[in-house]
Design brief:
It is built from 10 helices and 17 strands. The protein has helices at residues 29-39, 48-51, 85-88, 109-115, 122-128, 133-148, 188-203, 233-242, 335-358, 363-371; strands spanning 2-6, 13-19, 56-60, 62-63, 66-67, 72-77, 153-161, 164-165, 210-217, 247-252, 270-272, 276-278, 286-287, 290-291, 296-302, 313-315, 322-324. The relative contact order is 0.18.
């Protein structure tokens, strides 16, 4: 299975293609649109979310609601295109009016302009923008359906916002309730505190990041490999999550906490009673690069959005003069979007790993093969 995307932030549309899906997988556009809407929700979002109401359009690979086994192609249109087509058209367009030379700290602007030999950051930021994640959420929803057909479920919540942290342990069955909360937090007292902090940061022209926790339930042991570093499940999942814009750190299980504890408080003891099990899950469901049958527990740290409304000090790429960084329409906090996006890329990466091991031309074959595993 392979998933690729294309499109620019203010282009006509975002495109996605998934190769290797089996036939017979039910595709519900309503479910995909549900996750697209969740990506646009959350306290602290900016004005663009009021312009864009994302919906998926299936272009190929599905007939009568079921996949055909051919590549599944889909798009998410940019509804702001009418206001940008004079500046972003693939044909002749006005490239001066929206030119960006005041490179923004924390963005791809400067490094990208040097790498791709352009004097206009617009050519870089349009693809580097987190707007691209809309189509990744759509593709992730398809992969989520594939995993759900095997009984593998993925969910998550926001664990902290700018240092305001929910330190509680939550059962997997509780996680979906977070999507009904304004900040996707399950501790309502901490959520209220975080919302007050976001309000303060907004008045100061500042931004906030946070930490999301993603969990996977129902995955059997043995996915991934200890035989090749490229096939280690934790490496694959962490790489996928780090590909998300603004994610700066990923941990599995205890993660960085392992470095501060003795081995007796880190490693999960193994027991047997009609099957192997563990009483703890500090490894986060992955040992030796392979799933061990426990819940996969993954956390990702999102940096504060680098586009600050008050602007940071920088230089003009052409004149080298000291200036204030350019601003684009932005959010104060997009941690809820990050949670949905990280969930989605975990679904995609995990579906690729599962498909590699199970194969199968039809969904029925995939389900039978998964059921035959110990």
């Amino acid at each position: 299975m392979r998933f690729i995307t294309a499109g620019e932030s203010h282009g006509k549309e975002l495109l996605g293609i998934i190769e290797g899906l089996p036939s017979g997988l039910e595709i519900k556009t309503g479910q995909i649109n549900k996750y697209l809407a969740l990506r646009q929700s959350g306290y602290g979002r900016g004005g663009r979310q009021k312009i864009e109401r994302d919906e998926v359009e299936i272009l190929s690979g599905v007939r009568n609601g079921l996949t055909l086994g051919s590549p599944l192609a889909f798009c998410v249109k940019n509804r702001d295109w009418e206001n940008w087509k004079n500046y972003m058209s693939p044909e002749s367009c006005d490239i001066e009016s929206k030119k960006v030379t005041k490179v923004r700290p924390g963005h791809a602007d400067l490094a990208g302009m040097i790498k791709y030999a352009t004097d206009d950051a617009r050519n870089i930021l349009e693809r580097a923008s987190a707007r691209e994640t809309a189509v990744r959420v759509a593709g992730g929803a398809v992969c989520r359906a594939y995993l759900a057909g095997l009984g593998v479920l993925v969910s998550g919540f926001v664990k902290s916002v700018c240092g305001v942290c929910d330190g509680n342990e939550h059962k997997f069955e509780e996680l979906d309730a977070a999507k009904c909360e304004p900040l996707f937090m399950l501790d309502k007292n901490k959520q209220a505190e975080a919302m007050r902090l976001i309000d303060m940061l907004k008045s100061d022209g500042d931004t906030a990041g946070g930490v999301v926790e993603i969990r996977v339930k129902g995955l059997k042991s043995g996915f991934g490999s200890c035989m090749s570093y490229a096939d280690k499940l934790d490496a694959i999942l962490c790489g996928a999550v780090m590909s998300v814009q603004a994610i700066k750190g990923v941990e599995i299980g205890l993660g960085f906490g392992c470095a501060h504890l003795p081995g007796s408080r880190v490693h999960d003891e193994i027991f047997y009673n009609c099957g192997y099990y563990r009483k703890t899950n500090r490894a986060g469901g992955i040992e030796g690069g392979m799933s061990n049958g426990e819940e996969i527990v993954l956390r990702a740290a999102m940096k504060p959005i680098p586009t600050l409304m008050k602007g940071l000090a920088t230089v003009d790429f052409i004149t080298h003069e000291r200036v204030t960084a350019a601003t684009e329409r932005s959010d104060v906090a997009a941690i809820c979007a990050a949670e949905i996006i990280v969930e989605s890329v975990v679904c995609t990466a995990l579906a690729e790993v599962v498909a590699q091991r199970l194969g199968g031309d039809t969904m029925r074959e995939v389900i039978e093969r998964y059921g035959a595993l110990k």
